[in-house]
Design brief:
Elements: H1 5-12, H2 29-35, H3 41-45, E1 51-53, E2 59-61, H4 73-77, E3 91-95, H5 109-113, E4 119-123, E5 129-133, E6 153-157
Antiparallel strand pairs: 1-2, 3-6, 4-5
The structure holds iron/sulfur cluster (SF4) (3 copies).
The site of one iron/sulfur cluster has 14 residues, from loops.
Length: 166
Amino acid sequence: MTSSPSRRAILRGKVNARPHPRPIGALAPMAFEDACSQCGDCARACPEEIILRDAEGFPVLDARTGACTFCGACTEACETGALIAGQPFPWRAAAEPNCLSLKGVQCRACEDQCDASAIRFRLMPGGSAQPLFDDAACTGCGACVAPCPAGAIALHPFNPTEPAQC
Ligand code: SF4
Ligand code: SF4
Ligand code: SF4
């Protein structure tokens, strides 16, 4: 398969050390790394161009470049079985302390982006508002990540047995 210049640039691009999700359909971490050949077919198949490589060369979704539509093109493109349909996608969005609302600045940019209505704001003493992310409603699409003017939202591994983050 040939790559356009923009695709090659994406495939060469590296993401930082923050944990990023594998493309949807990824096997459990060790099984995924055993199965993945780092061929890049998933990245080339993604219409949103959000699949980059991590420092070791494995594919990751970087929501800072766009949102996943869960179209499944990446999973369908994977011929090694590293991505297979029906796997859970255990990633959820959460805001970090540099969130503007937590600092008293009026901002609802994330809420406006969330089609799943997974973000709501709770007024705090002093007039600031705290964004609350509903892990049960969040799909992990990442649509709220890039629009955040403070870069305060990231996707985090989600374990439903742990207390909810906000
Ligand atoms: S599901 Fe679709 S939009 Fe999401 S990473 Fe895979 S190819 Fe891209
Ligand atoms: S298509 Fe499959 S084997 Fe190739 S890089 Fe993506 S996950 Fe790895
Ligand atoms: S990741 Fe997607 S579903 Fe989850 S809060 Fe952000 S926009 Fe909403």
